[in-house]
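Re: beginner question about structure tokens

> Can someone show what the tokenized structure looks like for a real chain? I only ever see the sequence side.

Sure, here's an example I had lying around. Input first:
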Amino acid sequence: MDEYNLTVVTDFFLLGFQCSQNVRPILFCLILVIYCGTICVNLLIITLVSTSKNLHTPMYFFISQLSISDILLTTNTVPNMLYVLLRNGGSITFLGCMTQFYFFSTSIASECFLLTVMSYDRYVAICNPLRYSSIMTKTCCVKLAISCWLVGFSIILINVSAVSNLHFCGPNVVDHLFCDLLPLLDISCSDTFVVQLEVILLSIPSVIIPVMIIIPSYAKIIYTILRIPSNTSRQKAFSTCSSHLTVVSIFFWTLFSVYVFPTKGENRIMSKILSLLYTMFTPLVNPIIYSLRNKDILKAVEKILFRHTLHQNL
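And the corresponding structure tokens:
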């Protein structure tokens, strides 16, 4: 097909969830409540970590970075998703689509790196406790966090650049909730082999290597915990690691299901539900699983509430 005869697509039409008029308001309200809850809970974590001195530790610093990533992820996708849902479909410009795809992918990549760094932090804390303070210094933590963001923002540029150079000659209908890789490849009229190859190669440093670091780290952590003679110390160590392991399992399971090992002929509805898991559900439960069950976090909340009550009484 002569590429000069192709119609240039200047915008895309996102289908979103194609549902009845009666169901749309209910789904809209549900997603809006989850989104507002996600933003509030993650902002609470960031505020607590930045203002409470007892939370100025490497673990809570990385948790606050994870909250920033979760806010970026949900804010990039959910507002436009709500607009599409309310109108039972909506258009987005080509530039807007590529921008959304870039920041969405950056959030996912940065979160992969942050979860890896957090597993390393737990590894040092449990397997090398005497050297923890000398290894995980404030400077080291800041450098690790900056590296996660910089690598995430940089590595995704290659992928987005390749996708934006594809030809889209119509139809311009994207059967998804937002601009994502696989739905865009499905409607492209170019040969996508090179792009798919790039995605596979980029998944090695951004997904595969983090998993290969996290799994041995936790194998060593669990082995070390099982050797602790005190039941109390063993339970305390397990409680700090089980939260991270739960978050990692949910995040990487959905990521692998959608991108690395997608089911052949996967139902579109199932693909959208899986996308909702890591764009809405995971960012909401991350701070709950990770922090709001934590005694230090609860103490920090109590202090803030006490100060607020005391200020009002005065």
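Each token stands for a local structural state, so reading them left to right follows the chain. Residues 1-5 have pLDDT under 50 and may be disordered.
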